[in-house]
Amino acid sequence: MLGRKNSKQEKSKAKLSFCWRKQNSEHCAVYNPAHTTDWQLFVYTDRKLPISAGGVVGPGGTRYLVLLRKSPADKTLILLKPSRKWEIDPTHLTFVQEIGSGQFGVVKLASWQGTRKVAVKMIREGMMSEEDFVEEAQVLMKISHPKLVQLLGVSTQQVPIVLVFEFMEHGSLNDFLRRNRGTLTRSTALGMCQDVCEGMEYLEASNFIHRDLAARNCLVGESFVVKVSDFGMTRFVLDDQYTSSSGTKFPVKWSAPEVFRYGRYSSKSDVWSYGVLVWEVFSEGKTPFEHLSNADAVEEISNGLRLFKPKMASEKFYQFMNSCWQEISVVKPQMLLCCCLLHTAKDYLLPYASKEQPLLEAEQNIAGKKPAETDCAAYD
What we know:
single chain, alpha+beta, 5-stranded antiparallel sheet, disordered N terminus, Protein kinase domain-containing protein, tyrosine-protein kinase, ATP-binding
């Protein structure tokens, strides 16, 4: 088997091309080695291996994920399976209840080995390819930070394939804000923005672009700690830029102009989305540009329209939001600078928030409620 590094034009994709020859024919596949020690790579030429939606069942009954094959009729395959440290025995999971659903799967609350609550994302058959699953799992295995929802493991030895995450008891940030509208203090809101900023600063420093940052894709856990989730669109880059293919769907009202004009993503486009998330928090879960269609939003944003100042925010804090929405990237702050501003300039950003009222009884008793209905996409 031969391996080569990606070309300069493909540099941002950070992938390797593998080629092998058999009987005068060449087979090629592309593999993203984001964390190769987490996966075992195999090449199979056995034409008798049965291929299904759940992968390939190999010798000894072991199930493998199909990374790529040259054509549907070609039985020469590159296969993957997670290393032992990531593979979770499905018999160790006891499902409790469904807590969310989405286009690509269902999320269920489960008990892992009878001691720990976890959130289990189950892939809907035919809705997510094995290659997409591998790419998402690679990202999740690579990153680890207190303000990112942590992948605990995967279970590939059954159908459907599942991802196992830490359980965040209060569900998505967007739903949390709406359920508790009128009860959150400015300090609490600022703390939530700081949590997200810390997670995003880690991604930026690690050369990852999230591409889908929004309140719906963050989760709220114990003590109202907020963690970034939904890494289905996240990409590793070497030059702080990723250009998506034509026709790729994206969240218009959270996206920077360079995204809907050219499909161009960077850490600065993540900063734009972060500014919208901060606006969501301080508007207590309102939808940005809710009275505009996506097409109208694109036109108005291109013409200079920006979100209005939320009532909870001071003028100076609103200026901070607007700094995230600068169309010229060189003027837009980095995520690290956003974190520094939020951590060191609390009195400057929230000058009239020194005397906070305690959380209302409804918020104080949240911990006693049933597990929140969770948007499945937040665990994507």
